[in-house]
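It is worth pausing here to work through a concrete case rather than discussing structure prediction in the abstract. The textbook approach is simple: state the sequence, then state the predicted structure, then interpret. We follow exactly that order.
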Amino acid sequence: MGLLKTSHGEIETPSLVPVATQAVVKTLTSEEAEAAKSQILIANTFHLHLRPGEEIVKSAGGLHKFMNWKRPLMTDSGGFQVFSLGFGHDLQVGKILKYFPSPAKILETKILAGKQPKSIRITDEGVYFRSPLDGRQLFVGPKESIKIQEKLGADIIFTFDECTAPLSSLEYVKHSLRRTHQWAEICLKEKKSKQALFGIVQGSRFLKLRQESAKFINSLGFDGFGIGGDLGQSKETMKKILGWTIPFLDESKPRHLLGIGYLEDMENIIKSGIDLFDCTVPTHYARRGIAFISSGTINLRQSKFLKDKKPLDLKCDCFVCQNYKRNYISHLIKAGETTALKLLTFHNLYFFNSFVEKIREKIKQNKL
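Step two, the predicted structure:
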């Protein structure tokens, strides 16, 4: 258990950080996101730079006032978009490979030193993107990322980095890591605000590079740490990577695992020493009609739920489970009503936050 203090309140750790990409948890108001037990949210620097633009957010009094969120906020740096709009898009892979290709496919898709993604261009100064909205060219480097994040005004901000993709070669990751470390130093020099700045550890699935990165980032005096990049071919590899990394990070400072947070991961990553972790799973699954319940998941798009008069989860005390039944929510989904997405999102987020709350209780009782 830990307590992270910010100017917008305290966060009990470990904590899930729900994703509010465009300054909103999709389908929920800020009041509803808080009622679902969210302590802190993370918004996306790249997307808010695209629209409405950081100047508009700043003129509104910063993200907190703009979105009427009174609790702590994070913004990422835009580094994840280097992955998602780059090699992640090209190879159709996530941060952990859901499948590992055959040896022949590995040779075909391996990211070698000097290789560039199709849609973006990565240089030592920063990254050239094409706007997914109108195709115009954009440039974001460490200086630009910090300036944007300062104008957005979140409590916690991150250094600009290259989030490497699975199947990156050792040579590619070595070069990328050198660049990411240079960017981390630039971010520190550029920051003029009182916001907490977290440095990001990279190094892919390579032990020596992960440890080199952890030692280097730890030496720079950041307020906390992000652990980013691809995390190997399995959850076992992810566990190893955390084991290589965390011992070299100051234990008095918070450690955030970027982009990971399935229910089955939570106890393991928390045992490894992670304090904060962001994840789109509860909201993303809700928009597909899937509810998380004590026994697993149910898909409300299935017609059998039109005759099911039970709440989503008999053990859940969220307002959705107290007031609505599966048959009604299933009907709303089939009728294309957006209220279904709101009800499922609220329940899933409440369920995930309650799950982490129980882990915090276990820690208090020395059971974890």
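Step three, interpretation. Residues 2-279 form a domain with the TIM Barrel fold (CATH 3.20.20.105). Confidence is low (pLDDT under 50) at residues 99-108.
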